Amino acid sequence: AQADKGTYPFYMLKEIDEQPNVMRKLSQVYLNDDGTPVINADLLDAIKSADRLYIVAAGTSYHAGLVGAKLFESLAGVPTEVHVSSEFAYNQPLLSKKPFFIFLTQSGETADSREVLLNVNEQKFPSLTITNVPNSTLSREATYTLLLHAGPEIAVASTKAYTAQIALQAILAKALGEADDQAAAKDFDVKQQLALVANGMQALVDEKATFDKLAKSALLHTPNAFYIGRGLDYAVSLETALKLKEISYVQAEGFASGELKHGTIALIEKDTPVIGIITQQKTAGLTRSNLQEVAARGAKTITIVTDALAKPDDTIVLPTVDERMTALLSVVPGQLLAYYTSLNKGLDVDKPRNLAKSVTVE
Ligand code: AGP
Fold first, then answer.
1. Are 127 and 142 spatial neighbours (Cβ–Cβ below 8 Å)?
2. I need a surface site. Which of 13, 93, 159, 345 has the fewest CB within 10 A?
């Protein structure tokens, strides 16, 4: 069923606003009151007997996979690789002895991802599709399915599906780690974290005027912009840059902040916006010094920082959650900045040029 836009000018804004409820919904569907995950036992057994996870996806779903891999490795101790579907399909890497495949796909119809699933089925490897659309092609053709319960996502730019994919991977990683008696998983209160994330998201989406203003001052008239970060913050940089480029046509790129000095810093000119995402204690100081390096070359720097790591001059401060879950909050300012840049340019936010919601050709 086509969702109703209600009083929203665009679906994208409505879908950004729905994210706190999507977090609560996933918690209700996949977690008991005591916080223990409710995941099909056959699925858990199948993943447990694998020696490596292969996450395969495209676009925003691929970016959600980059975050998911860190959750599977840190909570369940299972080595995880993430691949772009269109690359994997025709250049399959050497696989481990017992691979398990996870397809992340909002629509469940992405042709590039399906091509990989067909190959995987031919090789008789087990698979799971995590999708928002029940009975979609990839859901039907994989061994197992988990639904995102995010409600219809209409805007071409994916927002709530991304955060739903990360939240569900966190639940699955917790379930796997617990089934395997891993201390990291037992100590990780995913239910409490999702509640904190939902409240944090709400606080961010309640600050729309701030993001509108920032989009106008920093992004509206720029030809290019960079998001930088390390680790999980790098993964989110890729996603927030994609959001900005696809709907506002600003040439935006996400970079590992340590890589700047290996080439990209040559692009920095007076007033080039460089947005640093800082949520990981271990690398906060390093990303801050990378921001100083670009500021010294004239860049206009903006910071998105968790409360625990914030300094007085930071631009956007995020409520503090477990460091493994920060992507769920740090992405929201990027979604809103992209939205307001596109809106203030007078573009069709929901239907950017040259793009389809679901890419059903290879
Ligand atoms: C995201 O904003 C995109 N429009 C796009 O990258 C999308 O995530 C990609 O096409 C994958 O789609 P899927 O999740 O439906 O497979």
1. yes
2. 93
